[in-house]
Design a protein that fits this description.
Helices cover 73% and strands 0% of the residues. The chain is mainly α.
């Protein structure tokens, strides 16, 4: 299952007792994985009904011990995920509450049973790290969450042998990479696991994702091109969307268009659609194809959802109707791809005039700051981050809040805790921008670390 080979997994289950706890748990893991990867709404009702049947069997089961109790809570969590993703948020919150309370009970009754700590820790961390605008509802349901307790439980499950240790190690590494600036540790773990299991598509996906996040474009594309393929594997359309971004960073516009078209042809969900059409627009626009660019721009507003920040950004671009600046856009893509010196060369050609928009005036110093920061030149980065903040005022763009967040990280790294706190608090103070949820979460967790 973890290799994303569902048919092979189901073949193993043919010889297993159909109502045994382990069988029911793996069956549910397969169902929820296929549903969430495919995002196929036509499978939603059948998946939730099958979860209800499994939970009813487990409720009546004569099996005793931690695994049965763990499986009940785990399947209920899978159900919560399905409900939230497919727009049934209230039902999903209630299922999350049931899973959380059940997993707490498993940990209390079986304190040495580490898989329960893996899942409880994950829930505690995510609930505890949510922005206040979301947390009030979960607090109302009796789900306060705790970042510290979550990390403690995850580390126990990740560092001691248990049947679900691999999952715990991956979850912990990804959390630490995303929220605690530990990219090298996450990448090292995933590279090691990938070498051990080259036939594991999940690990290939994680390797591509981590290389992309860490601006290693060539390595990410190599991982994409050498991933395991074939009918035995679950189709993973999002891989094409990631590849389209990577090719866009390199200026391979036609190849980027083909990759995103493949993604949209295979993908049945509503997330990432706006982002895909935005990237198709960028590829056409930057290559000088004005007709295709306009067609793709219109498609941004035609469908998909704005739950994810990438889609929200694309929708704001569509509604704003303010044209992008080609030079700044190229620099942004070069920085995202890890081509920092090329970006600095590109930015050297920028000249503001009286007609230059405030957004472009803010983007130029922000991009310079990012390039210098990622080149390991913190003094230059600080200068341009500060300039961005000073110019921005309360403009509703992400450049100033992101600058404040990055300044917080730089001062934290230098041991200047009080100055770091000032900038993390400033990052939280901006009322509205494209990446507010993720920026606020990171700033909030950084402030907790400094307490």
């Amino acid at each position: 299952m973890l290799k994303l080979r569902p048919a092979a997994a189901r073949n193993f289950l043919k010889d297993a007792a159909p109502t045994a706890t382990g069988t029911l748990l793996v069956q549910d893991c397969l169902d929820i994985t296929e549903l969430l990867v495919s995002q196929d709404a036509s499978r939603y009702a059948a998946t939730v009904a099958a979860q209800d049947r499994r939970l009813a069997i487990l409720e009546k089961s004569a099996e005793v011990g931690a695994l049965r109790e763990y499986a009940r809570a785990e399947i209920r969590l899978h159900q919560a995920a399905a409900q939230v993703v497919f727009g049934h948020e209230v039902q999903g919150a209630w299922s999350l509450r049931q899973s959380y309370q059940q997993m707490q009970q498993v940990v209390r009754r079986y304190p040495q049973y580490l898989p329960a700590r893996k899942t409880l820790g994950m829930m505690q961390f995510f609930i505890g790290s949510l922005p206040e605008s979301y947390r009030w509802f979960l607090k109302l349901l009796g789900l306060p969450g705790s970042v510290e307790a979550g990390l403690h439980n995850l580390r126990l499950a990740a560092t001691q042998p248990n049947d679900f240790q691999l999952e715990a190690r991956l979850i912990l590494a990804l959390l630490e990479e995303t929220y605690y600036k530990q990219p090298e540790a996450a990448l090292t773990l995933i590279e090691t696991l990938h070498r051990q299991q080259p036939d594991n598509l999940l690990l290939s996906y994680l390797l591509i994702s981590q290389q992309k996040k860490q601006h290693h474009t060539e390595a990410a594309l190599t991982a994409y091109r050498t991933r395991p393929t074939g009918s035995a594997y679950l189709p993973l359309p999002y891989l094409h969307h990631m590849a389209a971004d990577l090719l866009l960073y390199q200026g391979q516009y036609a190849a980027s268009v083909r990759a995103n078209q493949a993604f949209l042809a295979e993908y049945q969900g509503q997330h990432y659609r706006k982002d895909a059409y935005f990237k198709l627009y960028l590829a056409a626009w930057l290559s000088g194809d004005a007709i295709d660019a306009e067609q793709y721009r219109r498609r941004i507003g035609a469908g998909g959802r704005t739950v994810l920040e990438e889609d929200t950004y694309a929708q704001r671009f569509f509604e704003d109707k303010q044209p992008l600046h080609k030079l700044l856009t190229r620099a942004r893509l070069q920085i995202d791809g890890g081509y920092y010196r090329e970006a600095l060369t590109t930015l050297s050609g920028f000249r503001a005039t009286s007609a230059t928009s405030l957004r472009d005036r803010l983007e130029e110093p922000y991009r310079l700051a990012r390039a210098w920061h990622l080149l390991g030149r913190p003094d230059s980065a600080r200068l341009f981050y500060a300039r961005t903040i000073a110019l921005a005022g309360n403009a509703p763009y992400y450049f100033a809040p992101q600058s404040a967040l990055q300044l917080g990280y730089l001062y934290q790294l230098e041991g200047q805790k009080n100055t770091a706190k000032v900038y993390f608090q400033k990052a939280l103070s901006y009322p509205k921008h494209e990446y507010k949820n993720s920026t606020d979460t990171k700033a909030k967790l950084a402030l907790k670390e400094l307490e």
